[in-house]
Amino acid sequence: LLPAFFHTLYNLAKQSNDQNVRIVIRSFGSDVHDVVDAINAFATGHHPDYPGFEKKEWILGGENMFRGRWDRRRGGEGVYRLHRWNGGGGDDNEGSTTVVASGDEEVLDVIESQWICAIQDDYQYWYDHDCQPHAGKPIWVRSPLGQSLRNYHHHIIFDDNIKNDPDDSIVGVRWQGPYPPGLALESMDSSKELSGSSFFSLTGDSVRKLQAKYLVQVPTMEPILNLNWFLQQIEECEKNISDVMIQN
Fold this sequence. Notes:
By secondary structure, the chain is of the alpha/beta class. The protein is 28% helix and 19% strand. The strands form three sheets. A five-stranded mixed β-sheet has the order 1-5-2-3-4.
């Protein structure tokens, strides 16, 4: 893990509003256990750059490790579910059959109620759908209209495989509520937009427009050269969403 990652966690922990911060580790690969071990060492004072730093809320265990899987329904949108981690250390794509959360609201209840959790996402589903954004790692965005930044659940995802390509990118957006004027967003299924309470998938072109607001593409050299890079991107995303709220 990059030093800038731990620098970001350390600074987030020192903020006065750190109780509002939630950390969600997302990966398609078999590296989740290694990442968990590194974060646990950091959170228990064993990182050589942060000796003595401890934050028990960021210690990960089996209760906050999940495998995110799309329910492969025929026709229509799939349903994203969190399965209990089965304890294996490999890249077993099936994982446990025990479903912890099913559907957008239940998944959000889990990840927004925990200080930290780790999710191994559904690579096979993404691959089977030609790497389309809607089939990748989902993030959930509630419309910022009528919201204040202080009380807004602002999800920000960092990934080095986010692309400026509507047909090939690793993150999809599940949107809820009205669109902010000027962004020209569009649902993959226009009938879903009529229900203000439901989440729905945005088109790949719409997902592109949400970069630097909810999605951040990571050019790996940037955080290597600049310890503050992740913090700066978080600040920029917050400013951009705050501007949207003020303008509307």
